[in-house]
Amino acid sequence: MSYRLHIIFKTLPFPSNVLHSQCISLSPYFTPRVWFCSGGFRDRMEMEKSCISSEVVVGDSELLEKKINAIRSAGQWKLQVIADFDATLTKYWVNGCRGQSSHGLLQQGNPEYDLKRQELFEYYHPLEFSPTISIEEKTKLMEEWWGKTHGLLIEGGLTYDSIEKSVANSSIAFREGVIELFEFLEGKDIPILIFSAGLADIIEEVLRQKLHKSFKNVKIVSNRMVFDDNGHLLSFKGKTIHSLNKNEHALDMAAPLHDRLGDIDQPTDDNASVKMRTNVLLLGDHIGDLRMSDGLNYETRISVGFLNDNIENSLDSYREAFDIVYLNDAPMTGVVKLVSQLCLNGADCHTLTS
Ligand SMILES: [Mg+2]
What domain of life (predicted)? Predict the structure, then answer.
């Protein structure tokens, strides 16, 4: 039994001066429909089709407009983008099924150890979301989980070759518009920090295989592996980044960036210069992703949430938490429009309106 509820959602119009200036396109924010869907394969396919219309919710459009103006006035050199990876840059549904995560796609070529990692998942994953365990205790449990998993990857003889094959055979896919977003930001020298509690080496392989290019402005802040000359995993660099410490402090914990992207010969912004960029566009699919900007003394932050599933129960909390909420596994097109608006300077605005 499936159902679809069609609601006319009350959105707030931008003030008239914005409409008249033409500096802000209305299209990313004003699709006044919210679809609630549940059900099986056919519904999911329909949901994917409905993404073309990119349903979006803005809780407080006046506040959003103030933030857009503040970031635009400060200039693009003050802006950075902080993004979660799984189900934020990547799609939630792929061909009607739940898309794989960067962590979940890994088959280390050793079924016994794949099973051991799965058993760890089944034990620790419920603890991660348990409402009765304190954050301190959960943090210890997550350190334990990640430590054991990394140990199994080493013990089970993971090779880089297995990572390449796992990515090639996976169902992971980027949202439409991610390449355009990265290209636009690269052209403006705006850094993108991708925060993940997964594995940097897998994310980089996904970028390589699925986008077929690398970007000098993209940094992966995640757990990084060390391989020997034969491509066998030896160890991990830096401190472990897990689901509960995936925040801007992770920048200081993370191993050096871009070790494996040999085609990047230009030094990217170091951590200090990233911290000078005090305006933030944050992209995430969990409310906890908002913590990715913890530790950064930001002036203005625009948060974009992708609410991919369980919309009926989660919409209120997402609308409270994020400035903009995209529904139903939406493409990245609206975010591309948003960043182009954030990078318009006064001269651009004058040109557009003259
Ligand atoms: Mg995610």
Answer: Eukaryota
For ion ligand 1, residues whose CB falls within 5 Å? 84, 86-87, 285
Distance (Å, rounded) from C-alpha 267 to C-alpha 233?
26
Where do the DSSP E strands lie in 231-352? 233-237, 279-284, 300-307, 324-327
Helices (H) then strands (E): counts for the chain: 13, 12
Give just the sign of the alpha carbon dihedral 111, 115, 117, 118: positive
Does the pTM exceed 0.70? yes
Domain annotation for the chain: domains and CATH numbers: 3-91+174-191+277-353 (3.40.50.1000)
User: Is the backbone of residue 87 left (phi > 0), alpha (psi -120 to 50) or beta?
Assistant: left
Residue identified by tokens 């979940």 is 104
| Annotated active-site residue in 60, 86, 252, 348 | 86
Contacts of 112 (CB under 8 A, 6+ apart): 156
Concerning whether 84 is annotated as a catalytic residue, the answer is yes
Write out the E strands in the chain. 3-8, 33-38, 56-58, 79-84, 93-94, 97-98, 192-199, 218-227, 233-237, 279-284, 300-307, 324-327
| Cα-Cα end-to-end distance for the chain | 55
Is position 259 annotated as part of the catalytic site?
no
In the chain (354 residues long), the average pLDDT of successive 10-residue segments reads: 30 29 29 35 44 74 97 95 95 91 88 94 90 91 96 95 96 95 96 92 95 89 94 92 79 51 44 81 93 88 94 92 95 96 69 39
Cα of 329 from ligand 1 centre, angstroms: 12
Identify the active-site residue in 84, 201, 289, 323: 84
